[in-house]
Amino acid sequence: MKNTITTEKTTLHPRNPHRFRYDFEKLTASYPELISFVFVNEHEIESIDFANPEAVKALNKSLLISEYDIQNWDLPKNYLCPPIPGRADYIHYIADLLAESNDGTIPEDENVVGLDIGIGANCIYPIIGNHAYHWSFVGTDIDENAMQNCKKIISENPKLIDAISLQLQVEPRFIFKNIILPEDKFAFTICNPPFHSSQEEATKASIRKVTNLENTKTKNPILNFGGQNTELWYEGGEFAFITQMIYESVKYPLQVFWFTTLVSKKDNLKSIYKTLNKVGAVEIKTIEMAQGQKTSRFVAWTFLSKKQQKGWKFLVE
Fold it and tell me: Were 18 and a residue from 74, 85, 142, 306 both cysteine, which residue would form a disulfide, CB within 3.0 to 4.6 Å?
C-alpha cells in the first residue's frame, strides 16, 4: 500500500511549487510515459530510480508539462538533465533579490531581462523565470549543439518564442565579452558554473554520485543528470571560472544590476569575496539555499552605487 502523506519540503523557497512530494497521479496524467518508471519504495512511497537517466528525464518532462505549461521538451543524449526543484529555488531567490532593490516588490514583466550564462541544452532557468515572473532571457553557451536544442525547445513552445533569445559565445575563453552589447541592460545574470577542474575529476565525481544513488560500486558511470565536458569542467575548476566572470563583470558596471553565480564549493567563498573586493564591487551578498540535506548558495554582486541602484529601472523601455 502506498503512502499518500504529503510532506512539505520546508527547506525549499516558499514560492517553489515543488515543496511537496511529487504527485505521481497528476504527473503521470500529464505525461503517461512516466508511469513505467514509477514504483513504490521501501517506505511505501511512490518514487522513481534517480540513477536512471531516462526516468529523470521523464520526471522532468512531466513537471514541465504540469507546472510550467511546456508541451515539448527533450534533451540530446548525455546532456545535463537538471533537478528542477533546485533550479526553481535559484530563480525565486533572485526574485527576492530584485524586490529588495524595488521597494519590496518583485518586478514581474517581460521587460525584466536576465542573462543565463551556460544555458546548456535544457533551457531550464529561462523556462522557470518566464513562467513564474514573465521575465525575458538571453541564453548563451559555447556549445552549438546545446544551443540548437534550446532553439528547438523554444520553437516548439510558442509562449517562449518572444521571451528567450540565444547567443552563441564564439570565444570560449570569455564569458560576457561578445554577449553584453553596448545597448543591453540586464536586471541579473544567472549561472551554474562547471565546478570540476578536469575531465578526470568530473568522471570520478560522477562515479561517486551514481554509486551513492544505487548503493553499488561502478566503474562506468551512467549519469542521472548527464553532462557534456563544457557543462562539468573548466580548467582551474569552479573558482577559476567565477574569477574570470568577476574580472569581466567590471567592464559592464552600469549594464547589469546584479551579477550572480552558483557556488557549489563553500571553501571558495573567501577567495571569491577577496576578488570581488579587489575589483571594487559596491555590494556583495551570499544567498543560502537548501534542498533536503544538501546546502547550496549563490553569490551576487553589483557595481551600482546606492544612488544608481535607486534610479535603476527594472522595466526596460
Answer: 85
